[in-house]
Amino acid sequence: MKKFHFSLRPVAVLRSHRELSAREALASAILACAQAEERRGAARARIEELALAICGGRRERFSVRDEAAFGQIYRRECAAEAEAGRQVAAARAAVEQRREAYIEASRQVKMVSRLEERARNVHRMAGLRSEQATLDEIASRRVPPGGFSS
User: Fold this and answer.
1) Distance (Å, rounded) from C-alpha 65 to C-alpha 47?
2) Which residue in 138, 134, 112 sits closest to 19, CA to CA?
């Protein structure tokens, strides 16, 4: 029986590489999204801590100068938290985009795998038919020309 050769093997290898790079890009996007969410959480924690400090300072004594300084710091922290929120949204969009790319690359790999499996089945069936034809030929040679007489 002839050895199986899949003519689309280079395509399968190329698509496997694309799938691997898409998987790596998805993993890095997920990591970047997690880091952005951590930064947003840290910014929120700083805002809450600052709000507690401001409220605690007001209980003791009220100073216009301190309130102005705290107000500037608070606005800066709120702006940093808003920026972190935008970064999280952008990171989530990137994750979704990378996920779609990975799914498409995976589909392409599966499609070539199914084609290869079909080609293997066709090859195997052709080999079995050839083997059966050979066995039939051998069997027909053993039978005398007039057949077996009973």
Assistant:
1) 20
2) 112
- Residue whose token pair is 């840290």: 42
Q: Cβ contacts of residue 25 below 8 Å, gap of 6+?
A: 98, 101, 102
Amino acid at 8: L
DSSP string of 45-68, one letter each residue: HHHHHHHHHHHHHHHH---HHHHH
pLDDT in tens, 40-97: 999 999 999 888 887 776 666 767 777 788 889 889 999 999 999 999 999 999 999 9
C-alpha 68/C-alpha 76 separation (Å) is: 12
107 in Cβ contact with 15 (< 8 Å): no
What is the reported pTM?
0.73
Question: How many residues appear in the chain?
Answer: 150
Neighbour tally for 127: CB within 10 Å: 13
For residues 77, 81, 86, 92, the Cα torsion angle rounded to the nearest 10 degrees is 150
Q: Please, what's the b/e burial string for 66-100 (b: 16 or more CB within 10 A of its CB; e: otherwise)? A: eeeebeeebeebeebbeebbebbeebbebbeebee
